[in-house]
Molybdopterin oxidoreductase
Amino acid sequence: MKTTVGACPLDCPDACSWLVTVDDDGTAVKLRGNPAHPVTRGALCVKVNRYLEQTAAPDRILHPMRRVGRKGEGRFERIGWDEALDEIAGRLGDIMHEYDGQAIWPFHGTGSLGYVQGMEGFAGRRFFNVLGASVHEPTICSPAGSAGLKYTLGTSGGMDPEDFARSKLILLWGTNPLTSGHHFWKSVQDARLDGAYVVAIDPVRTRTAQQADEHLAPMPGTDAALALGLLHVIVRMGAHDQAYIDAHTLGWEEFRARIEEFPPDLVAKITGLPEERIVALGERIARTRPTAIRATQGLQRHAGGGMALRTLACLPGVTGDWALPGGGLCYSTSGHFKLNLPKLVRIDLLPHPVRSLTMTRLGEGLLEVDDPPVKALFVIAANPVGSNPAQNKVRRGLSREDLFTVVLEHFPTDTTDYADIVLPATMQTEHLDVIAGYGHLYLVWNEPAAAPPGECLSTSETFRRLARRMGLTEPSLYASDEELVRDLLDSPHPWLEGVTVERLREEGFVRLNVDRPFLPFAEGFPTTSGKLEFYSRRATRLGHDPLPGFTPHADSGEGLVLISAAPHHFLNTTFGNNPELRRRAGGPVIVLHPDDAAARGIADGAAVRVHNARGAFEATAEVSDRVRPGVAATTKGRWAKFTGGTTVNATIDERDSDMGHGAVFHDNRVEVDLA
Ligand SMILES: Nc1nc2c(c(=O)[nH]1)N[C@H]1C(S)=C(S)[C@@H](COP(=O)(O)OP(=O)(O)OC[C@H]3O[C@@H](n4cnc5c(=O)[nH]c(N)nc54)[C@H](O)[C@@H]3O)O[C@H]1N2
Ligand SMILES: Nc1nc2c(c(=O)[nH]1)N[C@H]1C(S)=C(S)[C@@H](COP(=O)(O)OP(=O)(O)OC[C@H]3O[C@@H](n4cnc5c(=O)[nH]c(N)nc54)[C@H](O)[C@@H]3O)O[C@H]1N2
Ligand code: SF4
Ligand SMILES: [Mo]
């Protein structure tokens, strides 16, 4: 028996460190949380506890396959790697000859956040750069919030989640950590032991909201107005920190005038919250130092998602919390990892500048983009039929007979059904990688523990072989996995000093070289002015309001606002095929407020059809005041092939949010009828 250290590759803030026990004949027999990692603390989650079961699942793809049926049917024949690589190389050569490399779209998803095999390093990107392929803009998850925060703070990185243990007031704002990254809860518990008060702000009474001391349920997409209303109360009380504002912020007088425009009675109308609850929370923030805000991705999947985070990040600038251990805001820590991404992805290998294609507008990209049209699509660790907006449009795009689609996968998803060639990919216990948490400050090492089953190849190796097959001579295309990590770690930034492959291997994880508590803006803000920018020239230049403000929902009008947030038992569509997790999750449910259900003659447990002009799906109604009136809730992550051919994503629009081309998953109006 031997034990190998690894890292969970899934798109989850916790980036757990795990230990794999391998028996004498090389089979991985046990996978558990690493007790030495200060955030993982020996526990994984309900999903990843079944990771080894997934690696050995009977539906795992073990060999290259070629389509024999119609696109979408999912009928394939087994072929060899040689045949698969020959066919791909031949088709790519033809497309490049007839069009241009930009007719190729390397569509990277979030199935793995590894820098070597996954999205963070755009595995295979060097290869695509040499071909001059279009650049993939990874917009599906968090770009709106990140872009918004950058206007205010100069970075999307904020507090260390571990420092929430020092907070006295915690606002869990548009985040459901007990489902979507439960290791953060330890910090909340520690803070509570020390007397902290916890408020959840979420249109839905989630698992997390149930555990909070107080729950406010605003209408979705109104958070920026709420933040301005809270600031109104704080400023009226004179509780703003003038000394901090003078020393560390830009544009206070202008911002103060904006705050004046949002008195609590108006904010009550916008948010649907009682005025006295807004005032009470404003007063509580005014008198509680340090106050910390945990706001994550759910909050920004709206037309005004970028503006929401931009505005929220001003709150600790007004109260001075950014200067205090346990004060400030945390969205994602990924901005703090100053890795050498340019050296890893080598954008300089592009023969000429190329266009970008936006991940969340795949339907449009396949059906409407011209000059050149997309002729080859590589889907890498993504399941766009399940996870993208506009499911029906995506299916139409993927059905194009003249589109050559290659999917690298573990399982026969709704997307592999449209592939011309399917390539079997290794899973995390079978390849090398390194992961950065976006909910902590550690780099986590993943050593391969077991041999890949069947003919599975890692993504990095797949692209080395394809490069050879195409006769490409650029030496960096043949870098080994370990060389790729060395390029990534080759950074002069002091926070990465001493972070080496050797140490990562030896220790399993390494914390960034930052103090504890971590005050990210102790030396100033990484904006042009060096200050927190209430007033942003950069925003103005890029066509936005110079000041933080409130941007309303775009999908206005009739119907209920449908939120489709993280499911407890799946991770996006990953694990959506696991029989035990499917059993525990049950079928698709839509939660309706009793008033909204009554207005439609819908009783608890009724079969309903949820629809809008974009599409429809079927679900069972749960009538409950867990949702506020006007709002309905379901979860993402189902496989369409198990739920009658469509999921909630059939109802979602391909529209961009206000910043960063982010998606608008929760900015979605639907009607609900008895089925
Ligand atoms: N179990 C599990 N864990 C996951 C995932 C999963 O699928 N399953 N997904 C992973 C991924 S990819 C990500 S990006 C993260 C996402 O995790 P979160 O950032 O937690 O995102 P969501 O689950 O989309 O939404 C979080 C909460 O925001 C609320 N919300 C939606 N709109 C609004 C709004 O306008 N205002 C307010 N105040 N609240 C709003 C929703 O009701 C929901 O409870 O989780 C990761 N972790
Ligand atoms: N309705 C609704 N939809 C949403 C959201 C929402 O809030 N509501 N949230 C969105 C968010 S936050 C995200 S991040 C996206 C996620 O959307 P995607 O990025 O498409 O992620 P998944 O659906 O998990 O599909 C990932 C696939 O990658 C495969 N995979 C995993 N690891 C590897 C690997 O190492 N190599 C290869 N080749 N394949 C691998 C898995 O088997 C899985 O099928 O979904 C979005 N979709
Ligand atoms: S999904 Fe999140 S909580 Fe679960 S093991 Fe992976 S990193 Fe940890
Ligand atoms: Mo995500």
Remarks:
- The CA atoms of residues 39 and 183 lie 6 Å apart.
- The pocket of MGD (ligand 1) is lined by residues 11-12, 110, 141, 173-176, 179-181, 201-204, 206, 218, 220-221, 223, 296-299, 302, 563, 565-568, 570-572, 637, 666 (CB under 6 Å).
- The mean pLDDT is 97.
- The radius of gyration is 24 Å.
